[in-house]
Design goal:
- By secondary structure, the protein is α+β, with helices and mostly antiparallel strands.
- The protein has a single domain, classed as Ubiquitin-like (UB roll).
- The chain has one helix and six strands.
- Strands 1, 2, 3 and 6 form a four-stranded mixed β-sheet that branches.
- Strand 2 and strand 3 form a beta hairpin.
- The longest helix has 10 residues.
- The chain is globular, with a radius of gyration of 12 Å.
Protein backbone atom coordinates (compact mmCIF):
# COMPACT_ATOMS: atom_id res chain seq x y z
CA UNK A 1 0.00 0.00 0.00
CA UNK A 2 1.38 3.45 -0.81
CA UNK A 3 0.36 6.81 0.51
CA UNK A 4 1.97 10.04 -0.58
CA UNK A 5 2.87 13.54 0.42
CA UNK A 6 3.85 16.12 -2.16
CA UNK A 7 6.41 18.80 -1.47
CA UNK A 8 5.25 22.25 -2.50
CA UNK A 9 8.77 23.26 -3.52
CA UNK A 10 9.44 20.26 -5.77
CA UNK A 11 7.58 17.61 -7.73
CA UNK A 12 8.84 14.89 -5.39
CA UNK A 13 6.34 12.58 -3.75
CA UNK A 14 7.04 10.61 -0.61
CA UNK A 15 5.31 7.25 -0.99
CA UNK A 16 4.66 4.92 1.90
CA UNK A 17 4.88 1.26 0.92
CA UNK A 18 3.14 -1.30 3.13
CA UNK A 19 3.92 -4.98 2.68
CA UNK A 20 4.05 -8.17 4.76
CA UNK A 21 7.65 -7.18 5.59
CA UNK A 22 6.54 -3.84 7.08
CA UNK A 23 6.35 -0.24 5.93
CA UNK A 24 8.98 1.70 4.02
CA UNK A 25 9.09 5.11 2.37
CA UNK A 26 10.45 6.05 -1.02
CA UNK A 27 10.74 9.36 -2.83
CA UNK A 28 9.74 9.55 -6.47
CA UNK A 29 8.92 12.20 -9.05
CA UNK A 30 6.04 12.10 -11.52
CA UNK A 31 8.63 11.30 -14.22
CA UNK A 32 10.03 8.27 -12.34
CA UNK A 33 9.66 5.25 -14.62
CA UNK A 34 7.64 2.22 -13.59
CA UNK A 35 10.82 0.15 -13.71
CA UNK A 36 12.62 2.52 -11.33
CA UNK A 37 9.53 2.58 -9.08
CA UNK A 38 9.67 -1.23 -8.85
CA UNK A 39 13.40 -1.11 -8.04
CA UNK A 40 12.79 1.42 -5.26
CA UNK A 41 10.00 -0.70 -3.78
CA UNK A 42 12.18 -3.83 -3.78
CA UNK A 43 15.18 -1.94 -2.35
CA UNK A 44 13.05 -1.12 0.71
CA UNK A 45 12.76 -4.79 1.63
CA UNK A 46 15.48 -5.99 3.96
CA UNK A 47 17.43 -8.99 2.61
CA UNK A 48 16.64 -10.77 5.89
CA UNK A 49 12.87 -10.49 5.24
CA UNK A 50 10.98 -12.90 3.00
CA UNK A 51 11.36 -11.74 -0.59
CA UNK A 52 8.24 -11.34 -2.73
CA UNK A 53 7.51 -13.57 -5.71
CA UNK A 54 7.65 -10.97 -8.50
CA UNK A 55 5.43 -13.10 -10.73
CA UNK A 56 2.57 -12.87 -8.25
CA UNK A 57 3.06 -9.43 -6.63
CA UNK A 58 0.14 -7.05 -7.14
CA UNK A 59 0.02 -3.38 -6.19
CA UNK A 60 -3.01 -1.47 -4.99
CA UNK A 61 -3.53 2.05 -3.71
CA UNK A 62 -6.35 0.89 -1.43
CA UNK A 63 -5.66 -1.32 1.61
CA UNK A 64 -8.48 -3.81 1.06
CA UNK A 65 -8.66 -7.18 -0.58
CA UNK A 66 -11.45 -5.99 -2.92
CA UNK A 67 -9.54 -2.99 -4.31
CA UNK A 68 -8.29 -2.90 -7.89
CA UNK A 69 -4.68 -4.03 -8.18
CA UNK A 70 -2.01 -4.27 -10.88
CA UNK A 71 1.00 -6.47 -11.44
CA UNK A 72 4.58 -5.21 -11.56
CA UNK A 73 4.49 -5.91 -15.32
CA UNK A 74 1.69 -3.34 -15.70
CA UNK A 75 4.07 -0.63 -14.44
CA UNK A 76 6.64 -1.17 -17.19
CA UNK A 77 6.75 1.60 -19.78
CA UNK A 78 4.75 3.97 -17.57
CA UNK A 79 5.67 6.76 -15.17
CA UNK A 80 4.61 7.35 -11.58
CA UNK A 81 2.76 10.44 -12.77
CA UNK A 82 0.37 8.46 -14.95
CA UNK A 83 -0.17 5.58 -12.52
CA UNK A 84 -2.25 7.45 -9.98
CA UNK A 85 -0.69 5.78 -6.96
CA UNK A 86 -1.21 7.63 -3.73
CA UNK A 87 -1.08 4.57 -1.51
CA UNK A 88 0.26 1.14 -2.52
CA UNK A 89 -0.07 -2.23 -0.87
CA UNK A 90 1.40 -5.51 -2.04
Amino acid sequence: MVSHQSSSSTNNQLLRIRSPAGTSRITVEPTTSGEEFIEKILAGISPSDPQPDLATVRLSNQPSSTAESVSFDALKGRTVGDMGFGYVQY
